[in-house]
Amino acid sequence: MSYSIKAVRAKIIETLQPLRASLGVRTIAPYSGQFDDMADTNKLSIATVFPALFVSFASSAPAYFEEGEDKPNMRFTIICGAKNMSGNATCEDEATDLVDAVRPLLHNKYIGLNLSEPVTVERENLIAASASWAICGINLLVNFERPV
Predict the structure, then answer these.
(1) Which of 20, 27, 41, 77 is the most exposed place for a label (fewest CB within 10 A)?
(2) What's the pTM value of the predicted model, to 2 decimals?
(3) pLDDT band at 16, cuts 50/70/90?
């Protein structure tokens, strides 16, 4: 079975939903230019959107099984946006708390898809930070089932 980019992204978003209750994440959505909208103060603001998790398709490419068969995969990036909510931590700390909460929900999990192996968190990185906000990225690898 193959999956569309939208279907895999929707499953990732569904898997992240518990973070609304546990960490107070306000926004869990596909990335569709929200940062551009935040630059326009009449639309969205960090105060109303963050903490946020935006899921974006990054790439796809065939990989190969040892026998030489195609093994399709997709990569996604989760953009974690945090503001300094507690007053006691830095924004970078708040963003890395989001990363730490996302990892166990996705890494080594099949997330309800027929995958050849569990989702892999390949990399986590700090993208940008200021005194009032921070953005981290989480790169995921999703490998699909072995061809029949």
Answers:
(1) 41
(2) 0.82
(3) very high
Q: Peptide bond preceding 51: is omega within 30 degrees of 0, i.e. cis? A: yes
Lowest mean pLDDT among 21-35, 83-97, 123-137: 83-97
Query: What does pLDDT average to over the chain?
Result: 81
Length of the chain: 148
Phi first, then psi: what are they for 133, rounded to 5°?
-155, 165
**How does pLDDT run across 89-126, given as a tens digit for each residue?**
666 777 888 999 999 999 999 998 888 889 999 999 98
Give one DSSP letter per residue of the chain, joined into a string: ----HHHHHHHHHHHHTHHHHHH---EEEE-SSHHHHHHSTTT--HHHH-SEEEEEEEEEEEEE-TTS-EEEEEEEEEEEEEE--SSSS-HHHHHHHHHHHHHHHHTT--TTS-BSS--EEEEEEEEEE-SSEEEEEEEEEEEBPPP-
Other residues' Cβ atoms within 10 Å of the Cβ of residue 54: 22
